[in-house]
Amino acid sequence: MSALLDVRDLSRHYGALRAVDGVSFELAAGDVRALIGPNGAGKSTLFKMLMGETRPNSGEVYFGGARITGLRPARIVRRGIGRTFQITGTWASMSVAENVQTACLAHDGRTLSILPYARHLHRERAEALLDTVGLADQADRPAAVLAYGDLKRLELAIALAGEPRLLLMDEPTAGMAATERTDLMETVTRIARETGMTILFTEHDMDVVFAHAERVMVLDRGALIAEGTPEEVRADARVREVYLGVGLDPEALADA
Ligand SMILES: Nc1ncnc2c1ncn2[C@@H]1O[C@H](COP(=O)(O)OP(=O)(O)OP(=O)(O)O)[C@@H](O)[C@H]1O
């Protein structure tokens, strides 16, 4: 089967700094892949290039067999790549359901300004998405009052409204309690399993990575230094060196 995402020799340099340096990998439909690496390894820069927010100096990105290198972000989103952010981008003054309805309208290419006249539009779709992420009972509450973990779920529902085939998640569990992390990642992996959506996520919590990723890629100083199952990556001498060197919990790599 051909790859859904095919990244070929992608590089982005800032002066002498090689933020991303000749990175190549493929993702197939339904893959759940983690991208890890110490601070400054190049994870965000790689995501930004995949979304069209940063232009690569060299290399190519193919999605669904078509070259998307250099396309603007909005066009890449329309091709089927979605993204969630470390900071939630919800509308505090709207209800939880309205936030998702707005995302559905945007996916339809309609303007947000019609929302006050169209509170019923996409209500059913929004409710289905909220059910998928476990927020059905919060639909009519203002987004402003949601607990942090629920905000991250709302953000996931908003991303799903765009019907992405590939969802890039930038530290999806940052700031969450341990049990909330597991719950959210179980929701994400269930959605991937049920819909065939592909997930690429960055994560600093090694417990989350080893419990929920099928495969893991490790970036260090812009270069991919390892790619494999959680067991393979955990046993990789270079990965251990990189992580032991920056003070991340070595226990997580040793025992997880
Ligand atoms: N616009 C920019 N101009 C100059 N340098 C940049 C720019 N964006 C990123 N960098 C540098 O590129 C390197 C990679 O940064 P990047 O944010 O991609 O790392 P990261 O792995 O996402 O880090 P973190 O885990 O801390 O988010 C860093 O050294 C960073 O300072």
In short:
One of its GO terms (molecular function) is L-isoleucine transmembrane transporter activity. The protein has 256 residues and is α/β, with parallel strands linked by helices.
What is the element layout, followed by pairings?
Elements: E1 5-14, E2 17-27, E3 32-36, H1 43-51, E4 58-63, E5 66-67, H2 73-79, E6 81-84, H3 96-107, H4 123-132, H5 148-161, E7 166-170, H6 178-195, E8 198-202, H7 206-212, E9 215-220, E10 223-228, H8 230-235, H9 237-246, H10 250-255
Helix pairs in contact: 3-4, 3-5, 4-5, 5-6
Please explain how this structure is put together:
With 256 residues, the protein is α/β, with parallel strands linked by helices. It has a domain at 90-148. It is built from ten helices and ten strands. The chain has helices at residues 43-51, 73-79, 96-107, 123-132, 148-161, 178-195, 206-212, 230-235, 237-246, 250-255, and strands at residues 5-14, 17-27, 32-36, 58-63, 66-67, 81-84, 166-170, 198-202, 215-220, 223-228. The strands form two sheets. A six-stranded mixed sheet has the order 6-7-8-3-9-10, sandwiched between helices. It has a four-stranded antiparallel sheet with strand order 2-1-4-5, with helices on one face. Helix 6 links the parallel strand 7 (166-170) and strand 8 (198-202). It is globular and about 50 Å long. 40% of the residues are buried. The model has no long low-confidence stretch (mean pLDDT 89). The structure holds adenosine-5'-triphosphate. Adenosine-5'-triphosphate (ATP) is lined by residues 14, 17, 19, 37, 39-45.
